[in-house]
Task: inverse folding
């Protein structure tokens, strides 16, 4: 089933997007403990994904095993929590923020995830 999801994503126009993920805090750094240090980010490439643009939002379709490998977690609830920590999603020259994550279940587990995005500077509804 997961192979068919990969084929679906390839058919829908597979592309790569960049996730801007905050680095974990450094233990023992007094400036960080006081909240004085600006957060650092690392870029993680999510590939392949299918990008579907709607009239008011953008949707990413990604195979479950690809997202699980990138984020290092497998539970759908943990995936949703990990995606909430993503600061920005870069698609070409546009910056988006994630608003929701939905798992697409199959055979007792997730086979695909839908990540809903909005433009970074757009007001949330």
Result:
């Amino acid at each position: 089933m997961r192979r068919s999801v990969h084929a679906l994503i390839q058919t829908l126009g597979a592309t790569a997007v960049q996730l801007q993920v905050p680095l974990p805090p450094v233990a023992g750094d007094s400036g960080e403990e006081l909240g004085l240090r600006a957060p650092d980010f690392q870029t993680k490439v999510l590939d392949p994904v299918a990008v579907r643009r709607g009239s008011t939002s953008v949707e990413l379709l990604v195979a479950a095993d690809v997202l699980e490998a990138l984020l290092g977690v497998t539970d759908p609830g943990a995936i949703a929590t990990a995606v909430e920590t993503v600061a920005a999603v870069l698609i070409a020259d546009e910056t988006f923020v994630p608003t929701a994550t939905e798992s697409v279940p199959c055979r007792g587990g997730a086979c695909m995830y839908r990540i809903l995005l909005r433009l970074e500077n757009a007001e949330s509804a």
The domain at 2-119 is CATH 2.40.10 (Thrombin, subunit H).
